[in-house]
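Tutorial, part two.
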Amino acid sequence: MAIRKVTANLNLAFGQPTKFNESMTPTKADMFQHYMFLRQEENVNRTPREALVTLCQKISEDLCRIWNKFLFPTMSFEGICLNVHRLIEMA
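Running the prediction step on this input gives:
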């Protein structure tokens, strides 16, 4: 019987790291998966780890782009960054 190995990239609460799906509005779980994807890309590309604030800004830019595509009214960019930062810290 083979033992199933859990990868280091798997988060038991949020699943596998993935980029945002551009055809659907992202959920909170999607935001955290996107955060994990960006961190994984840093490891794969062997680039220095960016600060959490910088990654939250990248995620917020991606969110704004998706929301603008669907013509959703959004709050200020700083408000989006703050909410993304809080979400990632709580997770």
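Residues 28-90 form one domain. In part three we will examine how such features are distributed along the chain.
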